[in-house]
């Protein structure tokens, strides 16, 4: 299954790289990003900063494979909001790119990072939902002690 891990690495590089790049670009020009978000109806500066920093951190986590599923879950939340707002206020190009990033993030939440990561996932949601049943512990066979034979009384006065 080496190909699976190579595909997951490629997906992580694409999704993580795009998210990290987008986060850096937002942080480099916050006045323009704040104006863009305000045009979409998001007026809170805290939300603008949270989205920008969140994209950067989630992108780096996905890119390098550190807590990939947690980073991908955070990216999926941000991208779900991005799909919603860009479908209402932006063009089709933005909707497509945010939808692709949302789909890539959800795939990484499901599969994990693969083995080519700084901190590979030990389990993924896919592993937890597999149809292979867990081994059932067997009870140890019970051992009954042999019956005690009554002994005849002795007439030993020294006891």
Describe the structure.
It is built from 6 helices and no strands. The radius of gyration is 30 Å and the shape is elongated. The chain has helices spanning 2-28, 30-39, 45-64, 68-89, 92-111, 125-128. It is mostly helical. Helix 1 packs across helix 5 (92-111).
Please summarize what this structure is:
The chain is an all-alpha fold.
Defining traits:
mainly alpha; 6 helices; 159 residues
Write the layout of secondary structure elements.
Blueprint lengths: L1 H27 L1 H10 L5 H20 L3 H22 L2 H20 L13 H4 L31
Helix pairs in contact: 1-3, 1-5, 3-4, 4-5
Oligomerization status of the protein chains: single chain
Largest sheet: none
Distance between the termini: 77 Å
- Give the strand content: under 5%
Helix content: 55-70%
* Average of pLDDT: 84
Catalogue the unreliable spans: none
Structural class: mainly alpha
Radius of gyration: 30 Å
Number of strands: 0
**Shape, per Cα inertia axes:** elongated
Give the SSE string.
Answer: HHHHHH
User: How many distinct helices?
Assistant: 6
């Amino acid at each position: 299954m080496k190909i699976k891990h190579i595909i997951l690495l490629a997906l992580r590089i694409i999704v993580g790289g795009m998210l990290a790049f987008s986060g850096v670009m937002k942080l480099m020009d916050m006045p323009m990003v704040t104006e863009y978000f305000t045009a979409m109806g998001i007026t809170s500066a805290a939300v603008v900063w949270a989205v920008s920093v969140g994209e950067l951190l989630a992108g780096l986590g996905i890119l390098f494979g550190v807590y990939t599923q947690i980073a991908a879950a955070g990216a999926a939340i941000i991208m779900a909001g991005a799909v919603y707002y860009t479908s209402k206020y932006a063009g089709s190009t933005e909707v497509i790119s945010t939808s692709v990033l949302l789909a890539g993030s959800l795939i990484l939440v499901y599969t994990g990072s693969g083995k080519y990561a700084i901190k590979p996932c030990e389990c993924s949601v896919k592993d937890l939902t597999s149809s292979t049943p867990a081994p059932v512990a067997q009870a140890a066979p019970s051992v009954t002690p042999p019956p005690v034979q009554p002994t005849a009384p002795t007439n030993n006065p020294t006891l």
